[in-house]
């Protein structure tokens, strides 16, 4: 049983609180990614599970046993790190079996485990190669095989693919998922790459400032982000945010209004809210007619156009001059939308757009907490909203 529980875990380094009262429960066999920006506390959290760092407060349980103060070797965990540390003078067999030989396992048992692990990571036939005769991806597979032969309750992986080139990373991503399917062992995986987290995880734990923001399946984090941080972090390109205020009839801001019945969402006139909408949920007005609940039209002007091959990103301006603030994306007058690759668009042309009401998120601007993820979530709201909706106020 490889379940892992962090209870009220805090780690302080003098004046830095690296991890702040973390509570996470990971089930046996789950693949959980810890994601967040650099310095948010991912590695420190992982190190406390591994036993490389002791918490200042709180407890760590693995497989139902408290391990808070146990050394790494007594925790039933195996680790794979970003920097692949193979012994350069040992061949693949010796590298994979090193830990088992150190623990005086029988030769037959070592051979059996090495063969099985080599099969899982597809290194059969390469056991006598030296590390300098192998590619980066193959060396990383040796490191993974070395973890597999330990037969741990839990695999801990800290950015194991970060040093590989982009193509190999995508390939190894699939291999790790296959490995997890085969071994059914709990995996805790640290990454700053949200694409990795989205594709591999059963659940994603999003961390910011040492605090857990949300832990949920990837699509739930995408569709129902708990707060502004998660909404902005998960999804590339990022969700559009517009700061404004609740009125008697919905939402108003400097450049756009969206009509809805505030009483359906527990907000009232005067409340400061931030509206969030993903690039794929904004449509040029004519194509937006096909969606079930568009807002009214919002007048914009196209600015930069980025053809990506499978889609086109269009930066739209809600007023004449560009106003951007990297620190506060919600204060910008831009909307980023994604349209099909065959769309006929040019820079500096007028374009009216509509938002898909079903996909509009509302957040409390001050606390950042999500209020609602669909403005037609309840039948009452859907009946009240109609299609007359928003209007440009420029
Ligand atoms: P992440 O893995 O998300 O990039 P870390 O867990 O490495 O973040 O670090 C979280 C915070 O704790 C950072 O501010 C970092 O500078 C600090 N920190 C980590 N390890 C130490 C340490 N050994 N001594 C002092 N500060 C540390």
- What is the CATH level 1 assignment of the largest domain? Alpha Beta
Q: Which architecture name of the largest domain does CATH use?
A: 3-Layer(aba) Sandwich
Terminal CA distance? 61 Å
Q: What percent strand?
A: 25-35%
Helix segment tally:
10
Low-confidence stretches: 380-394
Classify the secondary structure makeup into a structural class: alpha+beta
Rg estimate, integer Å: 25 Å
Bound compounds, please?
adenosine-5'-diphosphate
Tally of DSSP β-strands: 21
CATH homology superfamily of the largest domain: P-loop containing nucleotide triphosphate hydrolases
Protein name: ABC-type D-xylose/L-arabinose transporter
Family: Belongs to the ABC transporter superfamily. Carbohydrate uptake transporter-1 (CUT1) (TC 3.A.1.1) family.
Enzyme class: translocase
GO cellular component, one term: transmembrane transporter complex
Provide structural commentary.
The protein has helices at residues 42-50, 92-102, 107-120, 136-148, 166-183, 194-200, 218-223, 228-233, 285-288, 379-385, and strands at 4-13, 16-26, 31-35, 57-62, 65-66, 77-81, 154-158, 186-191, 203-208, 211-216, 240-247, 250-252, 257-259, 272-277, 282-284, 298-307, 312-317, 334-339, 350-355, 361-364, 370-372. It has 394 residues and is an alpha+beta fold. The protein folds into 2 domains: 4-224, P-loop containing nucleotide triphosphate hydrolases (Rossmann fold, 3-Layer(aba) Sandwich); 237-385, OB fold (Dihydrolipoamide Acetyltransferase, E2P) (Beta Barrel). The strands form 4 sheets. The protein has a 6-stranded mixed sheet with strand order 6-7-8-3-9-10, with helices on both faces. Strands 13-12-11-14-20-21 form a 6-stranded antiparallel sheet. The protein has a 5-stranded antiparallel sheet with strand order 15-19-16-17-18. Helix 2 (92-102) runs parallel beside helix 4 and helix 3 (107-120) crosses helix 4 (136-148). The longest helix has 18 residues, at 166-183. Adenosine-5'-diphosphate (ADP) is lined by residues 13, 16, 18, 36, 38-44.
